[in-house]
Amino acid sequence: xxxxxxxxxxxxxxxxxxxxxxxxxxxxxxxxxxxxxxxxxxxxxxxxxxxxxxxxxxxxxxxxxxxxxxxxxxxxxxxxxxxxxxxxxxxxxxxxxxxxxxxxxxxxxxxxx
Amino acid sequence: xxxxxxxxxxxxxxxxxxxxxxxxxxxxxxxxxxxxxxxxxxxxxxxxxxxxxxxxxxxxxxxxxxxxxxxxxxxxxxxxxxxxxxxxxxxxxxxxxxxxxxxxxxxxxxxxx
Lengths: 113, 113
Prior knowledge:
The complex is a heterodimer. Chain A is mostly beta strands. Chain A contains no helices and twelve strands.
């Protein structure tokens, strides 16, 4: 079945550092790929998405590129802020799943001043 | 403002009691979903509904029940049959023309005493 694997946290960074969170997936066909962010005590917010190979999703300085050849969708940000401290989830939706999402375990990111 | 509301934010229950979590959306979305989140884990799908008066079991439906009598509402009942109900519960909905992108409510934290 479909699955998503993302790097374990917590990831601790200093402000203005470069952030990478690795995400790889297993799925049949060509799934859509997502990154969601969860701030403490809140629900999830869509951060970015990509629906086909080589697409790049971007939002709020975050980027991720859909790599079919490596089945990856790594999240990057060039200069993090304290306000980026949150849990980040990678997720996929297969073409035959009618919108159902398969989530990774989440990666907690802590940015210190 | 359009969005998804969940109530209550915190809920306490004694063992052996059923409890119902509310989820309402005014986004005119056809599809709605319930997820369970445990500490350090990703989200797991409990139930989902593609249209009014129809719903399907997700990956962990045992001990839960739902109804979908109105498009705007998708309540989740946690029954006494659920062995370990303490968790954070998240409701989501999606746009029929963009079924992959799910929008989440703020969540309900259920604690069994």
